[in-house]
Write a structure and sequence with these properties.
By secondary structure, the chain is of the alpha/beta class. The chain has helices at about 1-20, 60-75, 90-100, 115-120, 145-160; strands at about 30, 35-40, 45-55, 80-85, 105-110, 125-130, 135-140. It has 5 helices and 7 strands. The strands form 2 sheets. A 5-stranded mixed β-sheet has the order 5-4-3-6-7, with helices on one face. The protein has a two-stranded antiparallel sheet with strand order 1-2.
Length: about 160
């Protein structure tokens, strides 16, 4: 009986550790606007609102003004808004940004490697990390009617 319990404990510990390793994290490299590899860990120590978007994404057009507002309102309190573009052609992202300026951190994942690790379920997809770099919330899509709730989540984390 002890052998069975030990075996079950080892198997469950192994499975849980694999799940923890697979969880979305800031330990990923993306590109900056110059095409250089940079780590998302540069934002660790702050509350991070990490958003994945693409030029063809309609709801992304609604999220950009909100992200700009959140960045301006809470940056000094420790919020980092980071939007990662998934277009394989940066010119598409640049055309989008010409119409929808972003006053927050922009990064690029043209091959979709990081997006794949985050297992995106729709666009935009947002991941909220606390100051310790732990994933605490996810959102699929952007709904203006939920904007106040999104903001309240951020405010709560900023107070921790």
């Amino acid at each position: 009986m002890r052998k069975i319990l030990l075996l079950l404990t080892l198997v469950s510990t192994s499975v849980l550790s694999q799940l923890a390793l697979a969880a979305p994290s800031l330990s990923n490299n993306v590109q900056n606007d110059k095409g250089q590899q940079v780590s998302l860990e540069e934002f660790k120590g702050r509350v991070v609102y990490l958003d994945f978007w693409a030029s063809w994404c309609g709801p992304c057009r609604k999220s950009f003004p909100w992200m700009t507002k959140m960045h301006a309102k809470y940056r000094a309190l420790g919020l980092a808004v980071v939007a990662v573009n998934l277009d394989s052609d940066k010119a598409l992202a640049d055309a989008f940004l010409a119409k929808m300026p972003a006053a927050f951190n922009l990064r690029f994942d043209p091959d979709g490697d990081v997006a794949h690790k985050f297992d995106l379920q729709g666009m935009p997809s947002s991941f909220v990390f606390n100051k310790q770099g732990e994933l605490v919330q996810t959102h699929v899509g952007f709904f203006t009617e939920h904007a106040d709730a999104y903001e309240n989540e951020l405010v709560t984390l900023l107070k921790e």
